[in-house]
Structure formats: structure tokens, C-alpha cells
């Protein structure tokens, strides 16, 4: 290798052909310094076959690792051991209660009653001396939140079922240091909620059964069976800000779902100590610092109770979620059949191990509390067998060491700067051609076959990469055709390209480290292992035990670890992000990101549709009222509603001219649009991409309570130029209030005790979301506005369990590859 790297003078011929420039700048070696391996070259077929074997083997290993689940334990398993089959009995019972959004009978009465019965049965079986306390909390409150948009989240009478387990002869340390386990049993609009989050509630019941028999010796356990998470984390806020048990909580474990079944992923942790505890206690580890940094960057439009416990309770925690099969997330397809055998067993056993590590070691929870929010640890699992953890400082020290080794390697290299620069130009051409080809495919698909890859993520990845690889190979062929003496120059070209790629990885590594990203370690893998292969090659050449075949084996072996690890990361990314693109709204064409020519939807990977039977009313200043009604239909993916147009021919909306977007009911009556939004997502689901199908006014059940906003008093002070208005707002469990911000500036209000004042307006409106566990809901509050001008407001009521004949007619003609979420909604706007 030393002979091969001997530097010669390089003559670069200026040419109009870029390929000529590349070939000319890679100089042939003199016969005197020609290494022995140049006398032969591996057969092209052997090279291709070897690379295929490596990548197919890596793919097979990653696929097996990604799908393997432990054997579930049966009903006869000892009560001291976690049993998936016992857990499924609890889950089945919860699912029998039906649709469980906040405010429904299933969520407010049936599920809590059943859980309390289970808790009392478990309490009766506790070990002697173990203390089990039960409390039911019904908190009310409010808090401002920047999630999707800025809004105020107001809640009343939501439910937390709380259980505290203290060990026998509990020490002061155990009583003053609690570990909380939390999940929620309420459902999202349209969701069956087996995985999100019924299964985790059932897992908590089984965990409680285990720990009343043998609780940790140095900690108290608090179980929070949470009844209002899908309403944007309301019950968690009520607990962590109002309940007396929170004073001793030092850490928490939050159980969530963004899919159904499979392996749960630890995707957030708030303390290095917790990451270490997971590494020690998890029997089947699956964790990634990459997932944590992606989630906390805000790229993923989702949040969990973890955020509330962290930001309002100042407690460190761990956030776990099922991420497989995200196609059924928040849909009616999220039933028990989607949860694979073994997925419950692995999560349950992992939590048991973590709790025992944190609770059975003296002072462990105190360490977590004393190092609050120091989530500076690197953590990643190794093929699900074990965990690697390190501090951020150690991780960056190792990455810096990789950079130093790489720089030394480049300085000592016999490849000239000119050769390296020319190889870099070739590399950029390859990348540019790859990007151009894949973007072309993406653009063509977004025009002619949008979302056609949606139901086949693995084919999507393969067929998206294929045109990119073809374009890169084409660029290399153009260069190789210009090489005048291939045998002499090919090895030099290979080393030049290797070092050019290495420079790219090094630059990326340096940038990521400068940004403070612990996930920069992935780039370090792609630097250090190829370098190690090259150093080993040089070492063997010095002992004259080197050949082209040996070089090929070393090169393939050197990239094996980064290839497998990168595949693991991509498997998780595909599993999570492809289903996410199916509910990212009709604005961004995801085909520019992925591409594949196949059928877009299937029964298991459905198209998501939201339909609301709407009654709209505008109350004019003169007291007159204008109204209309119809079905408001939204598609949650980029293809919009065109795929279901033909199915409408069997309904009263069979003509195309009926499929129109909603318009203003009255001029200048718009406040955050002119439709009944349940969440502030108007920027994600533009109204002009939806349908408003004319229909008769919805008929609500006799016991329904329509939304009504009443002004109790209004006073104005000329001295301060402030107007104070007191309201009473009544109606169904889910309501919204939108206050115009184009002409109105709010200076104060009573929500959240007025601590932080009005939240910043979003899209020219102050947005307030109300949710109650008791119907009819009733709120009294006041606002203070600058000036005495009239204020435009719109208020909305949602009836999640109601249905109408028009909604049934619409749903009856939809194909099986769609899934529907529905509600009856009222929208009223007026001046006050």
C-alpha cells in the first residue's frame, strides 16, 4: 500500500469534457511502484454478487430483529410474573365498552368503574404490609400551549384514577421518592383506541398486580390511569399541577402509541440516569437518541403527556410508544387484532425490569431528581440484544477522536489534493444525478399518481432508491469509459472516491457536533470503519499477504456495521414516517420525498377521511340570522377527495358541481375561517381543499346541549381604554371559541388564573379549546380587550357520538380502503 500511495507528479489536461478531466487527473502509476494487486482485478460479477450478499444479509438481519417478539406468558403464569394473556383479558373488557372520547359514557363511567373494580381486586391480593392507596381526581384548569398552533386549553371535570403502592415497612426514602407510571384510556376522534392507549392501560393493571406482591424497596409507585390525553394532555396537566402526590414524584414512565403492536420504542428520556436504568433493566431494549432528537425538534407533529409532566411538573421521565403499523393510528382499525402476540409481553417485562432497577437501588431516584432534565446521554440498542450508553461529553470526545484520526489519515495519504478534489466533483455529480432522478420520479408521481407508494413502504424504499442508484452508476460509467489504462488507474480512482466520501462524512459530522446533536455518532461510524478497513489493507500489504480478493473482503467487512446500523435507523423511519405522510394534509406532496408505482391504499393501509354534519349560523348586528347546513368533508392526505368522487354517484351528491369547497355564509363573518374546527389545523387542512355537501340541518338527540355563548356583563373604562366582558359558555363536552385578532387586542383573561395572559394569536384569531368530562359543560370566564369596539367571535360545539341519515348515506358508499372519523358540529359567529 505504501508503494501504491507513492506520490507522482500529476498532469491534468484541460478539456471541455468533465469526464475527461476526471480520468486525466487520476494518474497512472509507474511500473516501479505498481502494487502487486494491480496484476489482477476481481471479476465485476464477483464484486456485484459480494455487495448483494452483504446488503441482503444485512436486510435479512434487520428485518428479523425488527419483527421478532418474545413468547407470551399464559394465564397460568405466576402472579409475580408479567403475563400477556392476563393483560389481554383486561384490554378486551375495555374495548367492549365501545367508543371512548372524553365526555362519553364509555370514558367517564364504564371504563373508570371497571378499572376501579380491578384495582380493588388487586388491592385485596396485596402482600402483607404493602400499602395501596386509591384516589379519583376530577381536575379543572387551563394552560396555554404551542402545539400545532398557539391556543388556550381549558378543561373541566376530567378524570385521573390514581393508585399509590408503598413497600412494607417503608423507609423515609421510599415514602419521599415516587416513580410514576402513566397512560390514558380515552380515545381520539374516530379511533377505536386499542393500542392508543387501551393496551397500555391494561399493561398498567398487570404491573399493579405484580408490584402489590413485591414492590420496590426504596421507592413508592404511583399509577396514573389518565382519562383525557387526546384532548391535548388535559388530565396530565390537572394531575401534575394540582394533586398532592406529585410532591414526591422524582421520575415517570409514560406509555404511548403512534401505531399498533410491534416493538415499543424508547424515544424520549429526560435524564442520563434514566437512560442508564433502561440499559440495565430492559430485557428487550429498543431505544434511539436519533428518535429523541427528531421528536424534540418539532418535526413530528405530535406530543404526549411526557411534555406536560416535564414542563409543568419539572420531572424527568421516559416516553415509550408502539410505532409499528401507524396506518391504523387514530382510526377505527385500531382494534385488538392489530396487536401482535408478544408485543405486550416485551413491553411489560421491560417496564418491570426498569422499575426494579430504579426502585431497588438506594438513592437511584434521588440521583434522577438531582440531575433534572440533563438528557445529555447517548443511547442506542444493538440489534435489540443490548444497550450502549455514554454521556454526551464522552460521545463527542469519541467523535472528535474519529475526526482527528481521519484528518491524520488524509494528511498521510499519497492521494493528491487534485485527485481528491476531482473525485469530490465526481461524487457531487453522482449525488446530483441521484437527486435529480428521484425528484423527477417524485414530481411525475405527484402529478399522475400521488401517494401511490402509501400502502407498500418497503417497495417504496426500494423503488425510490433504484433510479438514484442507476443515475450514480451512469455517472461512474461515463468516467470509467475515459480511463485509458483501467487496471492501473482503477485502484487509485477507488481510493480517491473513498477519501472524497470520507470528507463529506467528516464535514457532516463536524456540523452536527457544532449543533450539539448526539445523533452525529452515525456519521462517525461511516468515517471510522472504512478508515479502519484501509489501515488494515495497508498493514497486510506491508507483509505481502494481500490480494484484490482480500481487499474486497476487508472493504465489505469494514462497512458492515455502519450498513446494518443505518438500515436499522431507516427501518424505524419508514415504519413511522410513511404512515405519518398519509395524515399530513393536502398541502405538501410527499411524492417529492418517496416514490413507487403501486396502488395507493388498501384495507390495512386506508385513506383517512373526516366528515362533520355542520349547522352554521351568523347572528347579524341587527339581530337577523343567516343559516345553512351540510356535510363538511376533509381528506387527511395529499390526494385530497378526488379518489372518492366516483363513489358519490350513488348518493344525493352525485353531480360534480356539488363537490365544492365551503364559502363564507355572510361577508366578513370569518373568524379563524368559517367552519367548525376542533383543533387549530386550518393551515394543515385548508378549507378550499375540502367539500361542503349541501344537506338538511342535523337532527340531534333530545338530550343534546347545543353550544351557547352568553354575555353576562360588559364594562368599559375610558381611563384605561379597557373593556371587560364576562361570559358563560355552555354546551357539549367538546367546544371551541375563536376570538378575532385582526381588530381586537386582548390584554388579559381569567383562563389559567390569568397567570400568563392571552396566548399569542394564531392565524388572526385567539383560539380557545374547551373539554369537559361532564355534560352539559359549563364555563364562566372573562376577557379584557383594548378599546370599546365590537368583537367578532365564533363558537363551536362538537357531538362525537351523534350520527345522522346523511352521514350514514355518505359512509355507506365509501370503499373498504377508507376509514372515517365523524361528528356533528355547530358553528355560530356574532359580534359582542
UniProtKB/TrEMBL annotation:
Entry GO CC = endoplasmic reticulum membrane
User: Domain Peptidase M28: where?
Assistant: 161-353
- Give the InterPro entries listed for this entry: ERMP1-like_C (IPR053973), ERMP1_1-A_TM (IPR053974), Fxna-like_M28_dom (IPR048024), M28_fam (IPR045175), Peptidase_M28 (IPR007484)
Residue ranges occupied by any Endoplasmic reticulum metallopeptidase 1/1-A TM domain in the UniProt entry: 421-598
Q: How does it sit in the membrane?
A: Multi-pass membrane protein
One of its Pfam families is Peptidase_M28
Where in or outside the cell is it found?
A: Endoplasmic reticulum membrane
Membrane-traversing stretches: 44-65, 394-412, 424-451, 457-480, 501-529, 549-578
Q: Which GO terms describe its biological process?
A: proteolysis
Keyword terms: Endoplasmic reticulum, Glycoprotein, Hydrolase, Membrane, Metal-binding, Metalloprotease, Protease, Transmembrane, Transmembrane helix, Zinc
Query: What molecular functions are annotated in GO for this chain?
Result: metal ion binding; metalloexopeptidase activity
Protein family: Belongs to the peptidase M28 family.
PANTHER family, alphabetically? ENDOPLASMIC RETICULUM METALLOPEPTIDASE 1 (PTHR12147:SF22), METALLOPEPTIDASE M28 FAMILY MEMBER (PTHR12147)
Record's protein name: Endoplasmic reticulum
Organism expressing this protein natively: Plasmopara halstedii (Downy mildew of sunflower)
Amino acid at each position: 500500500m505504501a508503494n501504491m500511495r507513492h506520490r507522482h507528479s500529476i498532469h491534468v489536461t484541460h478539456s471541455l469534457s468533465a469526464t475527461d478531466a476526471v480520468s486525466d487527473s487520476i494518474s497512472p502509476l509507474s511500473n516501479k511502484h505498481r502494487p502487486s494487486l494491480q496484476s489482477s482485478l476481481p471479476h465485476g460479477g464477483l464484486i456485484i454478487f459480494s455487495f448483494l450478499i452483504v446488503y441482503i444479509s444485512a436486510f435479512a438481519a434487520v428485518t428479523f430483529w425488527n419483527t421478532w417478539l418474545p413468547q407470551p406468558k399464559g394465564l397460568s403464569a405466576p402472579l409475580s410474573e408479567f403475563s400477556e394473556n392476563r393483560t389481554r383479558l383486561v384490554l378486551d373488557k375495555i374495548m367492549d365498552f365501545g367508543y371512548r372520547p372524553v365526555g362519553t359514557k364509555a370514558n367517564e363511567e364504564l371504563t373508570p368503574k371497571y378499572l376501579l373494580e380491578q384495582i380493588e381486586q388487586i388491592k385485596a391480593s396485596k402482600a402483607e404490609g404493602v400499602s395501596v392507596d386509591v384516589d379519583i381526581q376530577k381536575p379543572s384548569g387551563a394552560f396555554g400551549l404551542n402545539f400545532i398552533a398557539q391556543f388556550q386549553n381549558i378543561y373541566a371535570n376530567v378524570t385521573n384514577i390514581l393508585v399509590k403502592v408503598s413497600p412494607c415497612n417503608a423507609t423515609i426514602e421510599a415514602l419521599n421518592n415516587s416513580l410514576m407510571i402513566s397512560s390514558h384510556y380515552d380515545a381520539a376522534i374516530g379511533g377505536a383506541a386499542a393500542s392508543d392507549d387501551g393496551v397500555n392501560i391494561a399493561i398498567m393493571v398487570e404491573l399493579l398486580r405484580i408490584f402489590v406482591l413485591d414492590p420496590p424497596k426504596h421507592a413508592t409507585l404511583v399509577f396514573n390511569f389518565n382519562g383525557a390525553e387526546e384532548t391535548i394532555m388535559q388530565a396530565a396537566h390537572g394531575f401534575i399541577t394540582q394533586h398532592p402526590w406529585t410532591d414526591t414524584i422524582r421520575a415517570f414512565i409514560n406509555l404511548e402509541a403512534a401505531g399498533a403492536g410491534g416493538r415499543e420504542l424508547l424515544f424520549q428520556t429526560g435524564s442520563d440516569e434514566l437512560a442508564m436504568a433502561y440499559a440495565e433493566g430492559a430485557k428487550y431494549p429498543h431505544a434511539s437518541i436519533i428518535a429523541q432528537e427528531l421528536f424534540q425538534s418539532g418535526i413530528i407533529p405530535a406530543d404526549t403527556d411526557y411534555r406536560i409532566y416535564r414542563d409543568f411538573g419539572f420531572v424527568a421521565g421516559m416516553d415509550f410508544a408502539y410505532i409499528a403499523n401507524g396506518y391504523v393510528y387514530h382510526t377505527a382499525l385500531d382494534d385488538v387484532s392489530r396487536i401482535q402476540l408478544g408485543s405486550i409481553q416485551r413491553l411489560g417485562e421491560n417496564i418491570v425490569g426498569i422499575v426494579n432497577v430504579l426502585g431497588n437501588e438506594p438513592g437511584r431516584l434521588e440521583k434522577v431528581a438531582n440531575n433534572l432534565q440533563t438528557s445529555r446521554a447517548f443511547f442506542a440498542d444493538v440489534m435489540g440484544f443490548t444497550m450502549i450508553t455514554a454521556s454526551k461529553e464522552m460521545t463527542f470526545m469519541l467523535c472528535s477522536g474519529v475526526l482527528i484520526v481521519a484528518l491524520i489519515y488524509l494528511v498521510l495519504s499519497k492521494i493528491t489534493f487534485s485527485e481528491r478534489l476531482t473525485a469530490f466533483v465526481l461524487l457531487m455529480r453522482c449525488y446530483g444525478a441521484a437527486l435529480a432522478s428521484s425528484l423527477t420520479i417524485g414530481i411525475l408521481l405527484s402529478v399522475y399518481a400521488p401517494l401511490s407508494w402509501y400502502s407498500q413502504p418497503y417497495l417504496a424504499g426500494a423503488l425510490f432508491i433504484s433510479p438514484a442508484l442507476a443515475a450514480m452508476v451512469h455517472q461512474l460509467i461515463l468516467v470509467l469509459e475515459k480511463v485509458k489504462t483501467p487496471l492501473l488507474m482503477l485502484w487509485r480512482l477507488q481510493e480517491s472516491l473513498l477519501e472524497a466520501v470520507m470528507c463529506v462524512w467528516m464535514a457532516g459530522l463536524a456540523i452536527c457536533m457544532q449543533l450539539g446533536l448526539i445523533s452525529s455518532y452515525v456519521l462517525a461510524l461511516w468515517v471510522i470503519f472504512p478508515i479502519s478497513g484501509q489501515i488494515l489493507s495497508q498493514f497486510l500489504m506491508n507483509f505481502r499477504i494481500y490480494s484484490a480478493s482480500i481487499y474486497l473482503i476487508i472493504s465489505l467487512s469494514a462497512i458492515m456495521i455502519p450498513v446494518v446500523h443505518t438500515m436499522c435507523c431507516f427501518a424505524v423511519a419508514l415504519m413511522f414516517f410513511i404512515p405519518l405522510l398519509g395524515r399530513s394534509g393536502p398541502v405538501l406532496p410527499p411524492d417529492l420525498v418517496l416514490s413507487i408505482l403501486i396502488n395507493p391504499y388498501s384495507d390495512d393501509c386506508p385513506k383517512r377521511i373526516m366528515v362533520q354534519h355542520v349547522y352554521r349560523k351568523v347572528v347579524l348586528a341587527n339581530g337577523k340570522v343567516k343559516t345553512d347546513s351540510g356535510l363538511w368533508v376533509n381528506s387527511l392526505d395529499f390526494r385530497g377527495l378526488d379518489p372518492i368522487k366516483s363513489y358519490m354517484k350513488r348518493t344525493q351528491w352525485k353531480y360534480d358541481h356539488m363537490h365544492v369547497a365551503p364559502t363564507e355564509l355572510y361577508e366578513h363573518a370569518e373568524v379563524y375561517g368559517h367552519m367548525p374546527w376542533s383543533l387549530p389545523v386550518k393551515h394543515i387542512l385548508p378549507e378550499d381543499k375540502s367539500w361542503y355537501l349541501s344537506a338538511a340541518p342535523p337532527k340531534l338527540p333530545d338530550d343534546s346541549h347545543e353550544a351557547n355563548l352568553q354575555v353576562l356583563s360588559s364594562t368599559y373604562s375610558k381611563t384605561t381604554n379597557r373593556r371587560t366582558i364576562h361570559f358563560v359558555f355552555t354546551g357539549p363536552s367538546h367546544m371551541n371559541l375563536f376570538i378575532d385578532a385582526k381588530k381586537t387586542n386582548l390584554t388579559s383573561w381569567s383562563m389559567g388564573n390569568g397567570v400568563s395572559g392571552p396566548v399569542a394569536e394564531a392565524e388572526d384569531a385567539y383560539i380557545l379549546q374547551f373539554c369537559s368530562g361532564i355534560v352539559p359543560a359549563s364555563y364562566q370566564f372573562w376577557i379584557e380587550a383594548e378599546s370599546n369596539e365590537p368583537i367578532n367571535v365564533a363558537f363551536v360545539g362538537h357531538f362525537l357520538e351523534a350520527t345522522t341519515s346523511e352521514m350514514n348515506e355518505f359512509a355507506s358508499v365509501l370503499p373498504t380502503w377508507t376509514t372515517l372519523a365523524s361528528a356533528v358540529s355547530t358553528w355560530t359567529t356574532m359580534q359582542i
